[in-house]
């Protein structure tokens, strides 16, 4: 039995090493178009300040290969809301990290996506296109109740996104050193508004 298990581990290591040494994986954002935030907007409902945003160019060919291979992948979104003050340093009113985690089930041929900020069961979709849209979009995130804002004050919302982790079995964690070549992190995107 140990011999068979060792052969399985060897085969998995060989496949992952081959996959991660592929020239597509070794070309980082420097050689391709870097991921970036787009379509960011800040608006309000009757009770909350809402943030909308999208990430473009996050689903590169190399990231798609990792996802299709069944490795759970997490995108993190960092969003802050500061009150802009002229004399004192800005005051942070809200600072959140939202996560979207995707896992492809090769047997059922479906993608399962869990969003940390949605109080619902994981979403299941059949196409990579649907999964990509859900993974790269924040729609109507309630960053703060309007009642916590002061009339006549100025505020700043900042956001960025990052491919935060790839979850591998424990005995394969050393491969993360190679996987760091395909991670991305966007620049901060900022919107100022008056209330």
- The count of DSSP E runs of length 2 or more, i.e. the number of strands, is 9
CATH architecture grouping: Sandwich
Please give the largest β-sheet.
6 strands, antiparallel
What sequence of helices (H) and strands (E) makes up the elements?
HHEEHEEEEHEEHE
Shape: elongated
Q: Round the mean pLDDT to the nearest integer and report it.
A: 81
Cα-atom radius of gyration: 20 Å
CATH superfamily: Immunoglobulins
Strand order of the largest sheet: 6-5-4-3-8-9
Q: Regarding CATH, which class?
A: Mainly Beta
Number of helices in the DSSP assignment:
5
Oligomerization state = single chain
Q: Give the domain tally.
A: 1
The N- and C-terminal alpha carbons lie at a distance of 67 Å
Main structural class: alpha+beta
Which residues sit in consecutive blocks of at least 5 with pLDDT less than 50?
A: 1-5, 21-31, 170-181
Q: State which percent range the strand residues make up.
A: 35-45%
User: Roughly what percent helix?
Assistant: 10-25%
Summarize the structure.
The chain is an alpha+beta fold. The chain has five helices and nine strands.
What secondary-structure arrangement, pairings included, does this model have?
Blueprint: H1 2-20, H2 23-26, E1 36-44, E2 48-56, H3 61-68, E3 73-84, E4 91-105, E5 110-115, E6 123-125, H4 128-135, E7 137-145, E8 154-166, H5 176-179, E9 189-194
Antiparallel strand pairs: 1-2, 2-7, 3-4, 3-8, 4-5, 5-6, 8-9
């Amino acid at each position: 039995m140990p011999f068979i298990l060792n052969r399985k581990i060897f085969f998995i290591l060989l496949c992952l090493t081959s996959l991660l040494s592929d020239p597509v994986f070794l070309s980082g954002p420097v050689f391709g178009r870097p991921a970036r935030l787009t379509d960011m907007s800040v608006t309000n409902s009757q009770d909350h300040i809402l943030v909308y945003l999208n990430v473009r160019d996050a689903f590169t060919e190399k990231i798609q290969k990792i996802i299709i291979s069944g490795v759970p992948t997490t995108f993190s979104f960092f969003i802050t809301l500061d009150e802009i003050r002229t004399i004192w340093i800005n005051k942070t009113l809200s600072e959140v990290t939202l996560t979207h985690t995707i896992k492809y089930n090769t047997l059922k041929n479906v993608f399962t996506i869990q969003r940390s900020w949605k109080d619902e069961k994981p979403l299941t979709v059949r196409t990579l296109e649907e999964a990509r849209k859900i993974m790269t979009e924040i729609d109507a995130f309630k960053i703060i109740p309007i009642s916590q804002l002061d009339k006549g004050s100025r505020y700043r919302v900042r956001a960025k996104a990052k491919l935060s982790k790839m979850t591998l079995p424990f005995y394969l964690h050393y491969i993360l050193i190679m996987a760091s070549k395909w991670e991305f992190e966007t620049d901060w995107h900022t919107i100022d508004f008056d209330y």
